[in-house]
Amino acid sequence: MLEIKDIHKTFHKNEVLKGVSIKVEKGDVVVILGPSGSGKTTLLRCINFLERADRGEIIFDNLGVNIASATSGDITKIRKRTAFVFQNYSLFNNKTALENVTEGLIIARKIPKPKAIEIAKQSLDKVGLSDRYNYYPSMLSGGQQQRVGIARAIAVNPDVILFDEPTSALDPELIGEVLGVMKRLAKEGVTMVVVTHEMTFAQDVANHIVFMDKGVIVEEGNPKDFFSNPQEERTKQFLLRIVPNNDYSI
Ligand SMILES: Nc1ncnc2c1ncn2[C@@H]1O[C@H](COP(=O)(O)OP(=O)(O)OP(=O)(O)O)[C@@H](O)[C@H]1O
Ligand SMILES: [Mg+2]
User: Which bound ligand lies closest to the C-alpha atom of 33?
Assistant: First the structure.
């Protein structure tokens, strides 16, 4: 359904992505792992043109876009097929939970307000916030704010949702509620690409793991093989560091 091919991105002579390719099928949960600075966020941002890669291709079914020559029309089409969930939620503080979700529907997707409100309420209900429509972000916990971020993403009915460390800004006791919502979406068949350090989520929910380091994919595979039988030395080191005492027999 989505294929990204040979993505390259350089910031001020620093080559951050050195030719990254990933295939995502409908219903896949692809988890991207990797140390800090390996290019995970940059990759996600390049997929929906929050950042423009220097070269590479993004192919959504029958829509293929060469990044170097992409027009603003191409970019709009790609953006319509994706939604982004940010580490720091990125909500409008002066808007209620409901308004945060309707905003993109009304402005970007040109959906009439009454319909937008209906969709936004359904989306908030889905993430367990049916009693928080009129709360401002400052009146919500971090976990609730991130669930508004997820509601905003599902409301636009994208082909794929891109999550960039959605739980890393949360207190430990709030992480579970957000991962729980993501797990439910995965079960419903929502296609997701998730950058996370939550290894239990990666093992339980992902059907494909991509491990990046220094701007390249070092290793990828299904979670069982990846965690129990990593092939590359770099992967083994990473797993040992992130899962202490890992004997690779999970
Ligand atoms: N806008 C930018 N301008 C210049 N350099 C950037 C920019 N964005 C990212 N970089 C650099 O690109 C590299 C990869 O950054 P990126 O944020 O993609 O890493 P990451 O894998 O998401 O790391 P983390 O796990 O810490 O979030 C880093 O060296 C970073 O400094
Ligand atoms: Mg990052």
Answer: 1
